[in-house]
Amino acid sequence: MTARMDEGTNALEPSASVETRLAALELAHQHALREIAELKGRDTLKTQFLANISHDLRTPLTAIITHAEILRDGILGELSARQHESVAGIIGGGRRLLEMVGEILTYARGAANQLEIVPTEVAVGDVIEQVRRLNESLVARKELCLEIQVAPEVPHVWADREKLAHILGNLLGNAIDFTPSGGRVWVHATARHESPRDTVLVEVGDSGIGIAADHHELIFQEFAQVDASASRQHHGTGLGLTIARRLVELHGGRIWLESELGRGSRFFFTLPTQPQP
Q: What are the DSSP E strand ranges found in 43-159?
């Protein structure tokens, strides 16, 4: 009898062990869920903080730039040549800071799924020309050759004009920044007949320093810097390409890169010519 009872007890042990393991796994699962919820909460707070601080920084920065422009224009009295130079530096630095704050604010809205587009029929060539004019002085300062080509058959795209200008501004700004003086940058637009709908392909390229193949995906990640050292020559938030990709995808398009180290870069993105379903 004793032997039979021992055998029966032993027979129950594996079942008890499985139940114990299941209970432990369930406990670990619940603990993981709580940690995930906490991390999501912290991420939401971080995103809201970025949005709030970016919004609050824009007001004093705008005031600094405005007062500097008043000084530059001589409204409060004539300035010497050296004073003009200093005030111009204040205005340039302030505008650069304002652009960076705007990038952070746009990123925060995207991270919180608050980025929205209001698409209408847009002439791609008009937006490219708008962005070209905004970068004209920088192109001249670096003595770059900027080439614009919009194929005659390119139709209007279904896009948010302001967001499209933001995409082009980020890509062209990078091309100019990473191309040495005397180099070449370009923006081309062509029509593509694809299924299920036609698109317009925009290419922004440069003859600059290029990007190694193992960094092609990295540069589209938020806050990524190919050269993250304190002594790097090219500064920024590391959000421009992340935002560009997000905006392209919101339009139903896609963005990609072709580049080799030392042989320049070519960024491509597509935009629909008709409203999305």
A: 120-122, 145-150, 157-159
What angle (nearest 5°) sits at the alpha carbon of residue 72, between those of residues 103 and 139?
50
Euclidean distance between CA atoms 109 and 48, whole angstroms: 9
How much is the pTM?
Answer: 0.65
pLDDT band, very low/low/confident/very high, at 126 (cuts 50, 70, 90) = very high
**Are the C-beta atoms of residues 71 and 79 closer than 8 Å to each other?**
yes
**Exposed e or buried b for every residue in 219-243, given b needs 16+ CB within 10 A?**
bbeeeeeeeeeeeeeeebbbbbbbb
Give the gyration radius of the chain's Cα atoms.
Answer: 27
User: What residues have CB less than 8 Å from 169, skipping those under 6 apart?
Assistant: 131, 134, 135
What DSSP designation does 148 have? E
Q: Which residues contact 259 (CB under 8 A, 6 or more apart)?
A: 210, 211, 213, 216, 265, 266
Identify residue 166 by its one-letter amino acid code: H
Task: Tell whether omega for the bond before 196 is within 30 degrees of 0, i.e. cis.
Answer: yes
Q: Which tens digit of pLDDT belongs to each residue from 211-224?
A: 888 888 788 776 55
Angstrom CA distances, 121 to 12, 127, 159, 194, stand at 72, 12, 6, 19
**Is 164 within 8 Å of 120 (Cβ atoms)?**
no
The one-letter amino acid code at 61 reads: L
Residue-wise pLDDT tens digits, 6-23: 544 455 455 668 888 888
